[in-house]
Amino acid sequence: MEQRGSAAKRTRRRWVGCVVVVLLWSVASAQLRYSISEEVKEGTLVGNIAKDLGLDKSTLKDRKYRIVSSAMEPLFRVDQNDGILYVSKKIDREEVCERSSTCFINLKTVLENPLEVHYVGVEVLDINDHSPSFPEKEKMLEISESVLPGVRIPLKASRDPDGGPFTVQQYKLSPNDHFRLEVKDKGEDGKIPILIVQKPLDREAAGSHSLVLTASDGGKPPKSGEMNIIVNVLDVNDNTPVFSNGVYSVTLSENAPAGTTVIQVNATDLDEGPNGEVVYSFSNSVSHRLLTLFDINPSTGEITVKGFIDYEEKDKYEIEIQASDKGLAPLATQKSVIIKIVDVNDNAPEIEVTSFSSSIPEDSRPGTTVALISVNDLDSGLNGKVICAVNENVPFALSPSLQDHMYSLVTKAPLDREKKSQYILTVVAKDAGQPSLSSEKTISVVVSDVNDNSPEFSLSPYTFYVTEANEPGVSVFSVKAFDRDENKNADISYHIIRDGSDDNKVTSFLNINSETGDILALKSFDFETLKTFQFQVVAADSGTPSLSNNVTVN
């Protein structure tokens, strides 16, 4: 019989359904039991009630068969003439029997004239007509990158309205090195997927992970459902800022005005949020002096000039810059910035006379050193290369010394004090910068006298006339000599040459004032006795050795 076949089939398969008790009797009290699969077409034959009750056609003549009591009555109909039970509309087992291991529908039928009551039970068998589904299509998870491997994150289970083997049987996670899946069987509550961290997370390597969780039922072929899992890795301040350049080196012209940009450093932090925001500053090792010369923008890393930059004071600076993040426990890194100062021709040469003879004898040989001159320029390179010269048309020259930046001022021609007793020399020092800067130094050189000139008489020879009967002891005439030298070399003394010869006997009657050259007659002359006479006067200076000259007096 069909009902026995149905019973045998039920022993071979386990079904998950629900018991729907429409009337007050149990399934066990039903006279007839049938089974059909859900979703069968309308009009599908369920069973021949009359035949299964042993009623023949003659018994059914002029009698009607009908369903008299069932909440599920719209699902079935009975042919009142032959007692055959049909499906009147498509049956969804999951709708009719919620969460029941078996799904029975109890029908009370009657056969009229005379009235007979019959109880019929219909079991609705499950088919795999539903796919597993998750409560949400996409699940967002936030996991700190500092979590240790082994952390377990339970996920919501997938549900399948079907029963028995057609419910969710397994879960599968898309391949990922950092996560694996564990499934825990909760019995009646089904299988629960658990996401497990199996490898340390690094937000800087991967800020998020996209996973796909697939749930499959036991159908053949199986049906499945998916849920996208987005794991956002939360940042931990585990990265220090890193400067973009290995070496920062820049040149800066001296005298650069305040506010001039020197260089802009840049550092990045792989963390995010405050952990990745970089702040720039000078490190604690930077001296106070540097803080007065340079400034740094904490947000941009731009280093600017703050004070006066002087190459001559220092030609290179090394500043240690610090980049730190804004984490609760800030991480920082340092980097040196080398600033090379470029010289600007802002210093004129300096001339210094280190040794000087303000007076030089006029008989000095050419090459005689008059002064030692030091020339210095605080600039460097061409800006500090100095050319030194002395004004032309003077008997002096500058001779470079073996020592750097030293010159000797020497004579280059004979001197003659009697022609020029003083020279005003201008020493000019000029650098090779563009534009060139120069300095001047004035030196006064006095030519000292040397006794190189003999006295010279104003006349040569002298001729005087003396009246006879002159008064003895009175000056009768005088001679005069001059000397182009000076001081003692020009102090002249006079004397008469007395050699004792007969021609020079008259000199015994003459005397001369050694200082003035006045000649005095010691006796009166007599024209008749002596009409003319001649003698020699010598003029000598006081130099060493003394120079002299004589003149004939007639």
Fraction in helix: under 10%
Mean pLDDT across all residues, rounded? 86
Instruction: Provide the gyration radius in Å.
Output: 68 Å
**What's the story with the biggest beta sheet?**
5 strands, mixed
Distance between the termini: 198 Å
Low-confidence stretches: 1-28
Count of helical segments? 5
Give the structural class.
Answer: mainly beta
Strand content: 35-45%
Oligomer: single chain
3D shape = rod-shaped
Would you count the extended β strands for me? Answer: 40
What can you tell me about this protein's structure?
By secondary structure, the chain is mainly β. The strands form twelve sheets. Strands 1, 2, 4, 7 and 8 form a five-stranded mixed β-sheet that branches. The termini are far apart. Residues 1-28 have low confidence and may be disordered.
What topology does this entry show?
Elements: H1 2-12, E1 19-20, E2 32-37, E3 45-48, H2 49-52, H3 57-60, E4 65-69, E5 76-78, E6 84-87, H4 93-96, E7 104-111, E8 116-125, E9 138-144, E10 152-154, E11 168-173, E12 179-185, E13 191-197, E14 208-217, E15 224-234, E16 242-243, E17 248-253, E18 261-264, E19 267-268, E20 278-282, H5 288-293, E21 294-296, E22 302-305, E23 316-325, E24 332-342, E25 350-356, E26 359-361, E27 369-376, E28 386-390, E29 396-400, E30 406-411, E31 422-431, E32 438-448, E33 456-457, E34 474-478, E35 481-482, E36 492-496, E37 510-512, E38 518-521, E39 535-541, E40 548-553
Parallel strand pairs: 1-7, 2-8, 9-15, 17-24, 26-32
Antiparallel strand pairs: 3-6, 4-7, 5-6, 7-8, 10-13, 11-14, 12-13, 14-15, 16-19, 18-22, 20-23, 21-22, 23-24, 25-27, 27-30, 28-31, 29-30, 31-32, 33-35, 34-38, 36-39, 37-38, 39-40
